[in-house]
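Justification of computing resources. Each target in the renewal requires a structure prediction run like the one illustrated here; the chain below, 381 residues long, is used simply to show the kind of job we budget for.
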Amino acid sequence: MVAIAYPFLISLAAALVVRDQAPKPLSFTLNKHDKKEKVRPNPTTRAKINANEDVRLFANGDSYLINLGVIDQNQELQLVLDTGSADLWVDAAKLSDTSAFTKDGQKFGIEYQDQSIVRGEFGTSSVWLENGVEIKDLQWALATDVELTTGEIPGILGIGKGINEAGYHSSGTTYPNFTQKLKDQGLIASNSYSYYLNKLGTATGTITFGGRDLAKVKGPVATFYPSTTDENARFDTVTVSKFTSANGGSAPGVEAILDTGTTLTYIPASVIKSLKVPGVSVDIRGTYYIGCNQPTTKFVSFWFGSTEIKVSYHDLAIPETDDNGNATGRCYFGFQSSTPEEGYTLGDSFLRGAYITVNHDKNQILISDVNFTDTENIVSI
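Resulting structure tokens:
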């Protein structure tokens, strides 16, 4: 009897050890920080604008910041989380010690949609998550030339697809970026993440790597498998079936990119007009405004098949600021116009109303209406 029991106990103990070592999701707070974002004028009206005209072109939105220890665990910075890019870069001027950063001789350069430009050099080092987890030998860029249009930041953590890395189009190759490294080192089970941006005016949101918070999901879930061959293949791209509004407006849908790094949502001018949201006006630049005092009980709905994502009129009134960051008393409408040539983007003014999961391993995007709650029910994916 003893001889039979021991192997059973040993096997059971081994199974428990293996189970304990299975990767678990990593969830972190995203701290919100005010940012001014340059609003893109309607491309069809740009040519009519006097280049010397003194115009206010800034929407006062949020950056979503994640804490990372860079090169040294105690050298902690708050970096902007960006799903629309795929590289981590840090401004060298924000680091007191770069001696453990090993340069690899590759140049880094990226230009963002807001016309910010960053240049530097790739290399590797360890970085540390807020819970003390070390990511070893991560490739990232030490930036030495930083020209930003959105105010001063220490760096950006891009967590998009590898084919959206800055060097991919010139080299045709990718490297294991942040989320891929988390998986490769056994820290999470899949190259995936889920994000909850929370309501407009709140202080924090959350990002979960390798997992999904079921407590944040409300209603049916829409599933997308983005194209891997068209011009938007490098982005997280989904198709909106239709738009509707509380005032009886309705418009056909579009294909659009999901991007936490963009404050506003850019869709066709015809959609904005058809939604019939009261109080929306457009100026000579094609920029849309709305009164700042809007109800929380009326919504614009984005439909993904039978999945409805509701964004309140209140959350579509984005304060305008001048060049010095001072409030002007006016509000941008959370939707601005774009063209097929420039592409359409679902930015933070939409994403706050949704719970999103992106799984790069499966080339899969899950979208649901969001349940605004501090309760968590995180599962591994």
